Amino acid sequence: MMEPKSPFLDTIFLLRKNECITLFSNIQTISPKEEKEAEMYFEAEFEKERLEFLSDLLTCNTTTAVWAAKVLYHSAQLYLIRESTADNLENFIPKFKGTRDVSTILSADLCLRFLPEVIIALNSADPEDPLIKMLEAILTEFHYSGIGYDLDLSRVNWEGELRDKTYRKLYLERIVEKKDYKLAEIPFINTLLMAEFGMHKEAFWRELKIITQENQ
Hints:
The chain is mostly helical. Helix 3 runs parallel beside helix 5.
């Protein structure tokens, strides 16, 4: 693995390895060289995770992975550093401009899965922080990474969202891992979960209600 050579790379490497974030005294500009190194790193990390879902059709979208890494890095640094940032938060937290598909969702998730913890920290410091709404909007778009965090997903067409078999499997597994009752009790998702559990529901998730037409 590459040695950390910058605050940006150091933050991402340490976060994915040890699940902790390094905070620095200032926010430095991310160079093209750092972005290139990050792309190589994310390609390797994606390949490791791809072994778990065994799909040759999915490849790492490095542009999306680096965008998500920048969002995570900047949001973490903005937890402490706010001098001269109030009017240009959009420069630090740009909106996603690519095409949202399974590959981009999973590529973004390499970093966005850690974003809920950053939002929780920001909320503890200042619930009115405008950065929170910006980050929640990103998580709402990439809600696979936000499973376990309370998001408004009322507009999601779940049949269309979970059409891909690989993504559906990963989505359901994370709902179970995070014990996200709000998602698990959506009728469409609840039906999928019960089908996956089969005779072993009690072992997987004893407390989860079976949602029927009568108790919706």
